[in-house]
Amino acid sequence: MVQATNLGFPYVGAHRELKKHVETFWASGAPTQESTQTLRDAAADLRKAHWRVQVEQGIEQVPVGDFTFYDRMLDTSVLFGAIPKKYQDLGASSLDQYFAMGRGLQRAATATTAKIDVPAMEMKKWFDTNYHFIVPEFEENQEFALAETPAVVSHYHEAKAAGVANPRPVLIGPVTFLYLGKASKASSGFDTLDLLPKLLKSYGTLIQQLAAAGASTIQVDEPILVLDLPVTAKLALEKAYAALHKSASEHSVKLLVASYFGRLDSNLFCIKDNVDALHIDLVKAPEQLDVVLDAIASSNLVLSLGVVDGRNIWKNNLRASLQLLQKAVSKIGLDRILLAPSCSLAHSPYSIEFETEIRKSNPELYDWLSFAVEKCREVAVLTKALREGEDSVSDVLQANERAILSRKESKHTTDAEVRQKVEAINEADYHRHSVFAQRREAQVKRLNLPLYPTTTIGSFPQTKEIRVARNRHNKGLLSDEDYQAFIRSEIERAVRFQEEVDLDVFVHGEPERNDMVEHFGHLLHGYAFTQNGWVVSYGSRCVKPPVIFGDVRRKQPMTIEEIKYAQSLTSKPMKAMLTGPVTMWKWSFPRDDVPASTICQQIGLALRDEVVDLEAAGIPCIQVDEPAIREGLPLRRQDWDAYLKWSVPCFRLSVCGVRDDTQIHTHMCYSDFNDIFDAIQDMDADVITIENSKSDEKLLKVFATKNYTNEIGPGLYDIHSPRVPSVEEMIQRLQALKQHIPEHLLWVNPDCGLKSRGWPETEAALRNLVAVAKHFRSQA
Ligand code: GLN
Ligand code: ZN
Predict the structure, then answer these.
(1) Is the dihedral of CA 587, 590, 595, 601 positive or negative?
(2) Is 509 left (phi over 0), alpha (psi -120 to 50) or beta?
(3) If I label 463, which of 201, 218, 372, 667 is the partner at 20 to 30 A Cα–Cα?
(4) What is the dihedral of CA 30, 36, 38, 42, to 10 degrees?
(5) What ipTM goes with this model?
(6) Predicted TM-score (pTM) of this structure
(7) Please, are residues 573 and 614 in contact by the beta-carbon 8 Å criterion?
(8) What is the pLDDT of residues 494-507, one digit of tens each?
(9) Looking at ligand 1, which atom is closest to the CA of residue 755?
(10) Looking at 412, 519, 720, 775, which residue is catalytic?
(11) Pocket of ligand 1, beta carbon within 6 A
């Protein structure tokens, strides 16, 4: 009979308890038996609490093994003994070694131990989420060995002991694990999927152990099922599940394979005959229900239907979900259905219970929200409705209907004027008046910059003083005037500094901004902020994205005062700084009642007004950052065009209201351009500054071979490290860049904002940077 299930829970805890425990453990230096035990006990308490909450909400198959101290991919590497050599020889305790892999480890020598200095393993973005995982690393002759006491087995016992009736072990699947992993540098580059046969043996043993412990279903996450896969990966999936299914049935345990974040398409056929149950994401890809139902109707396959959004924060429309679910019921019957959130709830904040401020100040919005705990409840209610009829939950359904209706009809989500403005956008709004060559002429005349102009990406060090002042201001301990005065003094400091160092295009330094998205969110209508809406971003780090709940419009000019003030202090050209529409969308919890393109058009219009105001205030350069355009790319290539067709124009909408002689900059911080080069050209910014310090050659060849026409500032040094780059190395780098990019189009700059740096290294690095530009000028 249909059951309420869950795929994963926000393991960090209601109040980020895990973060605190883990960070205390790190801060205490070399682990002792006591500190290790304290951390392990705290983690066990959290797990227990989380299982209890899920059971209380009505979840009948509770995930175990979804908990992690740092990252589940990292856990999987450790689980199967895929530990790169440099961490094996640390002589550290197992937890120490584990965290060393996740975040690196530096420890001075002691009387009895040698000095330790190892970097972290590589980190990458987890599909299209804002979560980052630790990339597994394999040797060509990699051997796997299942850990002596696999955490997932102990957690299963723990859950049983805590009275959970039906814990469901969760594993990362072997094909996702290998496919997302990489060959170690030392090996000569091989296909990590070749390791599958060896790895499957260890998975087989693990399945056996879980079955022996009493598990009735094992959830195996294979999110790569929603990607465009090469044939090798498809074959690996077929092979893997043929083998695992055999082990599972030998030990009378069921295998549930979970896909999420998108649609299966033809990948379905790689696994459907070799699994007992399959989870599909019906939030990201509701259209796949029919296809999947047709494909599996005549089998015994159980479908786990992900109808509750695991990644956003809105209440589920229960009636609409029931309608969708009825379709499945009528086709395959109640016995072959499980209900679940669309993906692990680790991507969702914990509970709306703690949002006391929204509740007080915006009760209407509060009634539309649903975080992880509430989502579990929604799954349980839907299950009950299917099992016992809608009447059995009529109260809940009615309350839900009221909330959904209130959101639909709310006066606070639609703004007639904004809608009209969006309607009135015409093609010309998406384009500058003249082509780049002509604009360039006007800009050269106005700005009169030297060859190799130098600039920075926007922020200067956010010192402790700045954070303290902001905090005190937020708490009402520092008056508005005093805070403004403080910000002005910081701006002045930045301007004087840039004069001192002799940069060419100045910035105001962004001292007033805590975060490039949240800061603007506060200045726009349609945004709201949670107190406790944390989601994990990587390791122990969490982010608290703002909520876009309504039509977006500018409350009033957002940056003019600060930039004007900065410009008043100097005769050097000032570059204003804004966050682009796509990034504003992608790094928020967006509303789901209008398309993303509409949200971004609205933000684009708001920014356009700001850009035009900046121009009117005499600011000659305006930078609109779009670090998230690449990140927003859909997982399937087939969907890219549709996305780029609205996202790139939304950027242009925000900047194209200006005259030819106003110079538009944009900035992106990733170097993976090959795929979307055309889109970048299509953004038509006069200047683009990009992160580049990691892979110059490859990246710039693309710009060169494709004949990028506009100006470009490839980052000359990596700002993520306090290391000061020498003049010589930056000369070399720029020399290499010159091979690919014509000198008159080149800018000289760091590769991202300097907000996380200290002043001393910032000064030293920028002095060297300016020296590099001068060196090349003298040779020109
Ligand atoms: N202007 C921003 C800064 O300098 C850009 C940040 C980013 O690219 N992530 O901080
Ligand atoms: Zn950047």
Answers:
(1) negative
(2) left
(3) 667
(4) 120
(5) 0.98
(6) 0.95
(7) no
(8) 999 999 999 999 99
(9) 10
(10) 720
(11) 457-459, 510, 516, 577, 625, 627, 667, 669, 752-753, 755
